UniProtKB/TrEMBL annotation:
Protein name: Holin
Keyword list, A-Z: Membrane, Transmembrane, Transmembrane helix
Transmembrane segments: 12-32, 44-63
Length: 68
């Protein structure tokens, strides 16, 4: 079958969001060059993955039913 992953772990999704946000940032006076876009995507994927892990751990800690 297909090997899937959560949307927030996709560099494509983060790249698209950055591509949407970059012109808006430019209109606000902030310059985002191509190298910075790539770095932002990498960092956001890492942050999102860490955040997802923290949410999963929190869910396990507060769960009321044991796992098998």
């Amino acid at each position: 079958m297909f090997d899937t992953k959560p949307w927030y772990q996709s560099k494509t999704v983060w790249g698209a969001l950055i591509a949407i946000a970059a012109p808006l940032a430019d209109m606000a006076g902030l310059t985002v060059d191509e190298a910075m876009k790539g770095e932002l995507a990498d960092h956001l994927v890492s942050i999102a993955g860490a955040f997802g892990g923290m949410i999963a751990l929190y869910g396990r800690v507060v769960a009321t039913r044991p796992i098998r």
